[in-house]
Amino acid sequence: MKPDVKAKGTWVHRFSIRFFTGVLTVLVFWLLGFLVQDIRAIRGPNYAVIEKRHLAPTLVNKQEALAKQIADLTRRIKNQTEKQRVLGDSSRNLQQTMTQLLELQKIGMQRNVTFSEREQTNFTNSLNLFLENQKRYQELSRTISQTLEQKQELVREKEQIDRELDLQRKEARTEYQTLSMKHRLRLAFLQLAILLPILAVAAVVIARKRNSIYFPLLLAFGAATLIKVAVVIHEYFPTKYFKYVLILALLLAVARLLIHFIRTIAFPKQEWLVKQYREAYERFLCPVCEYPIRTGPRRFLFWTRRTVNKMVVPTSRRDQEQPYVCPSCGSTLYEECPSCQKVRHALLPHCAHCGAEKEIA
Ligand SMILES: [Zn+2]
Ligand SMILES: [Zn+2]
């Protein structure tokens, strides 16, 4: 096994990689936006059309006709009221004139001056005009009240029709809302039908090529797709559903992480395994069960993980290295090297004498 040394590069390079990963994420996000743009542009239901289908045309026509008539009557009432006001003004004027004439006559009678014929005629004319005005005023009042009655009747009729139309509009609105919701769900479904397969591909590729040097590229691709999917779900599904989708996704992610760590401990990776074996060999303890490796000069000694470095080991040059099996668990700890026929560590990758490499299971 070769030492796995990765070139880290200068900080400028590392920063550039992160920066461009971010840029790539944004670009992929845009691209996905263009992909689903046409779907988003699909027209939804048209309220005007639905309403037209729900409203009875006869009622609508009648309502329009009534509104026109009511407006007409209102205008007429306004005209007549105006005329009445003008008549009223003129009557008041005539009344003043006649009062003045009467005053003059009274003063004349006191001075024994008789009312001239012309003055008499003037007075009579004014009186006639006044009476006629009053008559017309009364007539106008009658007409106005009749028109008002007519108008009120029409208004009542229109209100009745309005109520019926409102009921029909309510049905139209309900149908529109149902159709709108269906339309939105359809849009969401279509967009997800495009995005989810991309996300699945991204997830699979990321999982497979975790150790690839082009991992940042894949990461940008996967992250952008994931964000886009989240945005679409958030936009089209009500918050109450989005909550469940989110918690489900988080659950899956956390469960996946947990499984990863559990597996790391249960099935340690080779480098971790070698590290663990190396430390055990250094302390002359069986890497598998930690039972002391009593071979060579240590054959009659006793030690533990803590005391191993403090003891004095009797040196004896006669001691030859020999193959050794842990008496406790039966693991082969020293064995004959197939290339140099000397004794080597059975659980470390390289032979201490010739450097021959073996696979550590
Ligand atoms: Zn052992
Ligand atoms: Zn060897």
Brief overview:
By secondary structure, the chain is mainly α. The chain has seven helices and three strands. It has three domains: about 10-235, no CATH class; about 240-265; about 270-305 and about 320-360, no CATH class.
**Are any ligands bound, and if so which?**
zinc ion
> How many independent structural domains?
3
3D shape: rod-shaped
Helix content: 55-70%
Order of helices and strands: HHHHHHHEEE
Secondary-structure blueprint:
Blueprint: H1 11-40, H2 47-54, H3 57-110, H4 117-208, H5 215-236, H6 239-266, H7 270-282, E1 324-325, E2 332-336, E3 343-345
Antiparallel strand pairs: 1-2, 2-3
Helix pairs in contact: 1-4, 1-5, 2-4, 3-4, 4-5
Bound molecules: zinc ion (ZN) (2 copies).
Residues 286, 288-289, 291, 326, 328-329, 331 line the site of one zinc ion.
Can you offer a commentary on this structure?
- The chain is an all-alpha fold and 361 residues long.
- The chain is built from seven helices and three strands, in the order αααααααβββ.
- It binds zinc ion (2 copies).
- The site of one zinc ion has 8 residues, from loops.
Any descriptors?
disordered N terminus, 7 helices, 361 residues, mainly alpha, rod-shaped, binds zinc ion, single chain, 3-stranded antiparallel sheet, 3 strands
